[in-house]
Amino acid sequence: MSEYNFQILVCGGTGCKASESEEIRSSFVNLLNEYGLEEEVQVVLTDCFGFCEKGPIVKMMPDKTVYVRVKPSDADEIIKEHIVKGNQVERLLYRDPVTGTVVRDRQHMEFYKKQIRIALRNCGFINPEEIDEYIAHDGYMALGTCLTEMKPMEVIEQIKKSGLRGRGGGGFPTGLKWEITAKVPGDQKYVVCNVDEGDPGAFMDRSILEGDPHTVIEAMIINGYCTGASKGLVYIRAEYPLAISRLKIALAQARAYGLLGDDILGSGFNFDIEIRYGAGAFVCGEETALIHSMEGCRGEPTFKPPFPSVSGYLGKPTNVNNVETYANIPVIINKGADWFASIGTEKSKGTKVFALAGKINNVGLIEVPLGTTLREVIYDIGGGIRGGKKFKAVQTGGPSGGMLTAEFLDTPIDYDNLLAAGSMMGSGGMIVMDEDDCMVAIAKFYLGFTVEESCGKCAPCRIGNKRLHEILERITDGKGEIQDLDRLFMLSNVIKDASLCGLGQTSPNPVLSSLKYFRQEYEAHVKASHCPAGQCKALVRYEVIEDKCTGCTLCFRNCPVGAITGEKREVHFIDQSLCIKCGVCFEKCKFGAILVS
Amino acid sequence: MDMINLTIDNKPVVVVKGTTILEAAKSIGITVPTLCHMKLDDLGIENKPGGCRICVVEVKGRRNLAPACCTEATDGMEVSTHSIRAINARRTVLELILSDHPSDCLVCAKSGNCELQDLAHRLGIREIHYKGEQSSYRADTSPAIIRELNKCILCRRCEMMCNEVQTVGVLSAINRGFSSVVSPAFEMNLDHSVCTYCGQCVAVCPTGALTEVDHTGAVVRALADPTKTVIVQTAPAVRAALGEEFDMEPGTLVTGKLVAALRRLGFDYVFDTDFSADLTIMEEGTELLNRLKRHLEGDPDVKLPILTSCCPAWVKFFEHQFPDMKDIPSTARSPQQMFGSIAKSYFAGILGIKREDLVVVSIMPCVAKKYECGRDEFAVNNNPDVDFALTTRELAALIKVSNIKFRLLDNEEYDAPLGESTGAGVIFGTTGGVIEAAVRSAYELYTGKELPKIEFEELRGMEGLRKATIDFNGLPINIGIAHGLRNARKLLEDMRAGNSWYHAIEIMSCPGGCIGGGGQPYHHGNVEILKKRQMALYREDSNKAIRKSHENPYIKKLYEEYLGHPMSEKAHHLLHTVYFDRTR
Q: pLDDT at residue B127 above 80?
C-alpha cells in the first residue's frame, strides 16, 4: 500500500456515486496511466466522508487536502497541479460559508470539528474492498483479543461496562441483550445484523456497510463467540446494492483469511455469516418482523415475549443488533470500556451517527458524542439554516420521532432527553425544518409514510393511522374543523397505547408533537383556512394585482395549465378553477404583480 | 407447579405460571372481550395473533396497554380490565374496525351470528367518530365458498385454520397496511387455488367475510315445481347440531324433528345419508378385506393401508397434494354420492320416473359437499346425482323462513327404503366413526364370528392422530385415525416414505370430523359444543336396534334386488369412483 507516493481517495458512497464519482475515479485512473504516473499514485474508491452536501469529495493523501464538488473533468487539473506541481487547486477547496476563508483539510472544517468518529472511523479512510486496509487500521485485532485472551462472559462484561445501547432506535443495553442470549440454553443460536434501515433520509447503516463492512463482520463474530452462536445472518434491504456487493467481497475475504469458518484464529470457534435480503419493508426493522421475513414468512411483528433472545430465528435464541451498534464493538474491545464510557452522558454512552437533512446548509452524515446539543449539531456542524432562514423545528427519530422546537436547541442529545421531549433517538434521522415548512403538512408526510409501511396486522395501526392521515389531509385541504384537532389527539393516544409493535406505538408522535408545539398552525388551517407557511396548496390563492400588472404576458406564457388569460399590455387574469397553484406566475413576474394569499 | 398471584379488577387470583391475563380473568368470572382470539382447547387449535387489540387491559406500571390474550400473568401484576383508559382504547379500536366495515348488517348472511356485531352491541357503540375510506375488494365466489373481503377484519383465524390446522396454505395475508387482506396468493380466485373447500375458514370467520354459497333459493324453486319429485337425505352430523340453531342445548339430538321439518318443507321423501353410510361400509369394508386378503396371500401390488374416501375435502386435498398416491384411497364414493347414485337409478326405478324428474337434495354439515356434488364424474348426461347440497345452517334458515316452529315439532320417522340405517351409519359423523363402523362389519365378515363388544373405545376421542390395533381373531389390524388435514399430511408423508404401519386409515378434514364441519352452526370457538355433538352421535348409535351396517335389512334388500353383491360390476359402476391428478 505504502509504495505509492500519493493516494487519491474518491468518495464511493451511494450519494457521490450518483454524482459521477465512478467517472471521477476512472478519469483519474485513465489520466494517470496516460501520464505514466500509475506507479506513483493510487486511486482508491472509499466510502462516504459524511459531508454529502459538498460531494463528490476527493481527498489527497498524504497531505490530506480535501476537494469538494469535484467533477470528472477536474481530474486533469488535480493531477497536473496537485500531484505534479504540488499546488492546491484553489477553486475546488472548501470555503467556510461564514468567513469565506478557504479550508484545506477536514480537521479545520466546522463540519468535522465537533465530531468524534467511532462507528464511522474507517469510512472515507480505507478502501472497503481491501481487507488488508481494514487490518492495517487495527481491524480484527479485537476479535483476536476476544478469542485468545477473553472468555465470552468477560467480553460481555466489557460491553455492559461500556454502556453501549442499541443504535437501531430502542436503546436497549447491548451487553445485557448479549448476556440474555448467552444464558438461554440452546443447541443452535443465531446472531443477526439488522440492516433494514428505513427512516426517510437515514443512511448511516448503509454507509457503514459500504465504507467499513469488516467492522460489522468482526463484531458479529465476537457476538457469536459471546452468545454461543455459530451462525450469523445479515438482513439487508435489497435496494442497497453497493452495500451488498461490498459486504459480499468482505465476507469472501474474511473467509479466505480464516476469519470466518471453522476454528477461527485457531481458537476452535466456528462461525460463518449468510446474507438475507429484505424487500424494503420499514416494519422489518422491528426484530420479530425481521426474523419472520428471514424465515420466508410475511414480514410482520409478533407479540413479545418471547423475545428473540429466547425464541427467535426458527425458534432458536437469536441476538439482533443493528449495524451501528456492531460498528462500536471492536473499538470498545480495543480501547476499553472505560474509554468508551467516558464519552457521552450519564445514561447514554459513546457517540451517535445522524443523517442530517432538510433545510440545513451542511447535509450529510455526522457522528457526535451523545450529549452534544441540537444547537451544536444544527448550527456548528450543520452550518445553520439554509438561505439564512429561521429555524422552526427538527424531527429526530424519523417517522417515529417527534418535532422539537427552538426551546430544545440546548438540550443535550441522548436517549432519555429526546424521549422526555416527546421524540426519540430512533436510528438517527435528523430532519431540520425552517419557517417555510408547514408543520401540519410535515405531520401528514410522516403519517403518509407510516400508512404505507404499516404491516396491517393490528387494527389501531392499520386503520388508525389511515384515519389520522385522512384527518390531516382534510386539514391541509382546508376542509378541517376545529373538532378534528381533538380527534387527532385522542386517536393518536389510542394508537400509541394499543398498537402491537413499535411502529404503531410511535407513529402518532409527529402528530402529537406538532399539535403540542404548533397548535396555532393547525388552528390557522381549520379556523381561517390559512396555511401560515404557505405550503398547503389548497389554501393558497394566486391573484393578479391589477395596479402592478403591466401585461408583459410572462405569466401567461409560463402557466403550465393555461389558467392565465390576458392581452399584451393589458391586465391579466388567473382562472381559479384551472389554477394548480404551482407558483410559476409568482416566480416569473418581474413586477411583483402576483398576490399570494 | 409455579403459581402466580395477581389481581384483576381488584380481585385476587392465583393461576399457574404461563396463564394469560385473559385466562386468569376468565377463571374468576371476568370475560374480557376478544375478537381475533379463538381457542379450541382439546383440539390444540389456537389463534392469537394479538392483532385486533380489543382485549387490551391496563397493567399497573406498564407503559402501554396489554393484550390480555397474549400477555402472561406475572406475580404481583395489577390488572384493570375496565379502567377508563382500557375501555376508551377498546371502544376506539372497535370504532376503527367498524369504520372500515360495511354497515349492511341488516342484509348480511352473518347477521345475528356475527361476533363483530355482538361486540359492537356489548361495547355500546352508537357512533363512529373516525370515518374515512373503506376497503373495497372484489368479491370471490366458488362452488362452495363466497369471500366478501370488505367484511374481513384481519382476525387471521381463517389463515390459521388453512395453514396450521389444514396445511393447505391457500389463505394468507397479502398487501400491506390498510390494503392488507386475507386472500389466496396474487388475489387469485379460490377455485383456481388448491383450496379443498373444507370450510374451516367459514366455520371460524367472526364476520360475514366468508360464507357458504347459498342454495336455499334453488331448493325452494325445486320444491315448488309440480313436475319434480324432490327427495332429501340428511347427513349423520346434522341431527346432532341443528337444534343449536333453534336455541336448543348443544348435543341435543333432533333426528325426529329434522325429519318432520323436512316433510313440512315439502320434500316428497325424507331419507337418510346414514343409509348410504351403511352402503359405504359394505363397499369400503369389502374393498379393505379384498386388499387384506391379497396382502396376506403375498400380492406385492396391493395397496395398503386403505384410506377412507367419504370426505370430499380430503379427496380434493390428496388430488392436489399427493396425486402420486391417488390409487391408495378406497374407490368407494362418499355416502352423499352413493345416495344420489342409488336414488337416481334404483329409487327412480321404483317410482317409475326419469332421473331428470327426480331432484336429490342433501343436508350436510359441510360446504365441500357443494363442490363434491358438482364434480363431473357424479353426473349422468349432465344430470347430477345430487342436485343441491345445503348446509345445516342453510336448512335452519329455510325452516325459519317457512314459519316452522322447530322446537314444537313432533318426532317423525324417515321414509323407506332409503331412510333405514344402523348405528354404524350414525357415527360416520364423528372422527373415528367411519373406521369403527368399518371394523364392526369387517370383523364379522372376516372372522365369521359375532363381535363380543360393539363399541371400540380405542377408536374414539378428539386427539388429532390416533392409532389402535384390533384383533381380527389372531390377525392384528392396525388402524389409524386422522382429523384435520395437517394430521392427514403426516400420515401420507410417512406412507410416501415407506414408514406406514397401518392397514386402514380414516381421514376427515375437519377437526372433530363432520360434527365440526364447515356447514354446521357456528361454534364461536367453544370446543365443548363439538364434544357434545360427538357424544350425541354415540348416544344415537347405542339407542339403535341394529348397529352394524351389514345387518341393515334395506341394504341387504338393495343388494338382493339390484346390486348383486358388494364390489359387483353394477356396484362398481354406481358406487365407486376415480381420482384425478390436480397438481397446480
A: yes
Which residue numbers of A have CB closer than 8 Å to B's CBs?
A: 281, 298, 300, 302-303, 305, 451-460, 462-467, 470-471, 487, 490-491, 494, 496-500, 505
Query: Across the interface, do B178 and A456 touch by the CB < 8 Å criterion?
Result: yes
- Specify which residues A412 forms β-bridges with: A373
φ and ψ at A542, to 5 degrees? -105, 125
A152: which 3 cell numbers? 465470552
How many helices (H) and strands (E) would you count in chain A? 25, 19
Fold type of domain A6-106: Glutaredoxin (3.40.30)
Alpha-carbon distance B70 to nearest alpha carbon in chain A (angstroms)? 7
Give the integer Cα–Cα distance in Å for A23 and A25: 5
Phi-psi region of B544 (alpha: psi -120 to 50; beta: other; left: phi over 0): beta
**Which neighbouring-strand residues pair with B16?**
B3
Q: Taking the mean position of all CA atoms in its chain, how far away is CA A70?
A: 23
Chain A residues in contact with B92 by the CB 8 A cut-off are 460, 464, 490-491, 494, 498
CATH code for the domain defined by A131-340: 3.40.50.11540
Q: How far is CA B426 from the centre of its chain?
A: 15
Query: B35 pLDDT exceeds 70?
Result: yes
Angle, CA of B515, B520 and B525, to the nearest 5°: 85
CA max distance for chain B: 80
Number of H helices, E strands in chain B: 19, 22
Burial class (CB in 10 A: 0-12, 13-18, 19+), A428: buried
Q: How confident is residue B76, by pLDDT bands cut at 50, 70 and 90?
A: very high
CATH of A541-596, one of 3.40.50.740, 3.30.70.20, 3.30.1700.10, 3.30.1330.60: 3.30.70.20
Which of A305, A452, A496 lies closest to B177 in CB terms?
Answer: A452
Fold of B140-208: Alpha-Beta Plaits (3.30.70)
How far is it, in rounded angstroms, from Cα A267 to Cα A263? 6
Asked if CATH classification 3.10.20.740 holds for the domain at B3-99, the reply, yes or no, is yes
pLDDT at A280: 85
In the structure grid, which three cell numbers stand for residue B461, read together?
A: 376421542
Nearest to A127 by CA among A253, A229, A280: A253
Whether A1 has a pLDDT exceeding 50, the answer reads no
Domain A439-528 bears CATH identifier 1.20.1440.230: yes
- pLDDT greater than 70 at residue B198: yes
* Residues of B noted as catalytic: 284, 287, 310, 330, 369, 372, 377, 514
Lookup: cell for B427: 357415527
d(CA B520, CA B391): 7
Q: What mean pLDDT is predicted for residues B62-66? A: 95
Predicted TM-score (pTM) of the model is 0.92
Radius of gyration of chain B (CA): 25
Classify burial at B445, counting beta carbons within 10 Å of its beta carbon; exposed 0-12, middle 13-18, buried 19 or more: middle
Tally of CA atoms within 13 A in the half-sphere of A12 that contains its CB: 25
What ipTM was estimated for this complex?
0.93
Size of interface A-B (CB pairs under 8 A): 110
> Residues A173-197: what's their mean pLDDT?
96
Find the closest chain A residue to B94 by CA distance: A459
Of B65, B70, B92, the CB nearest to A303: B70
Contact B322, B496 (CB under 8 A): yes
Asked if A491 and B99 come within 8 Å (Cβ–Cβ), the reply is no
As a whole number of Å, the CA-based R_g of chain A is: 26
Query: SS3 of A169, please?
Result: coil
Q: Which residues in chain A are contacts of B52 at CB distance < 8 A?
A: 458-459
| Check whether domain B216-275+337-408 has CATH 3.40.50.1780, yes or no | yes
CATH superfamily of B279-336+420-575: Fe-only Hydrogenase (Larger Subunit); Chain L, domain 3 (3.40.950.10)
